[in-house]
From TrEMBL:
GO biological process: DNA repair
Native species: Candidatus Choladousia intestinavium
SUPFAM superfamilies: HAD-like (SSF56784)
UniProt xrefs under NCBIfam families: HAD-SF-IA-v1
Molecular-function annotations in GO: phosphoglycolate phosphatase activity
Keywords: Hydrolase
One Pfam family here: HAD_2
Gene3D superfamilies for this protein: HAD superfamily/HAD-like (3.40.50.1000), Putative phosphatase, domain 2 (1.10.150.240)
Protein name: HAD family hydrolase
Top-level taxon: Bacteria
Keyword Hydrolase: yes
Amino acid sequence: MDSFILDVDGTLWDSTPIVARAWTKALREGGCEREVTQEQLKGLFGKTMKVIGEELLPDENPERRQELMELCCRYEHEYLREDPCRICYPGVTETIPKLAERFPVLIVSNCQSGYIELFLEKTGLGPWITDFECYGNTRKNKGENIRMIIERNHLKDPVYVGDTNGDREAAREAGIPFVWASYGFGEPGDWDGRIKKFSELLK
């Protein structure tokens, strides 16, 4: 192993309480009277924004759905920027700098553009993250983005740390081992390593 590639939601922090409020406001403002819950988001996070939109708003036509999801993302960024965001899982902000002393630490997420930057800004972890990539920047799935970041940074033996079955599938697609963050949102079918708390990566 020569590097760690990390997922964000369900692995590094849980933004679902804040995002649920933001998306509910956005949808209502956009004329869609429905409430988005934390539990809904935990089942959706980890998927691309396109798929999230299809599952969250199945009755809307594609153009209307995209319009509503863009509004959701805008409100999400505003809410996260205004909130203190003390929502990292225990040990994340202490562990990443220690990992970065020994290995490159990178991030790949299916999130929209700007979300990882906001995460780094709110947590102060930017100096310890070598590189990052997301669906919003490339419109590629997570497996493709993992491969892209491996090639871009000349990584030889990385591992991917995530919490959902989608994360496991992405790691398999990229041909690298998957470490399951079992405290997160999902339960993948299998894994190559398992952590019950983030600081266990130091072992």
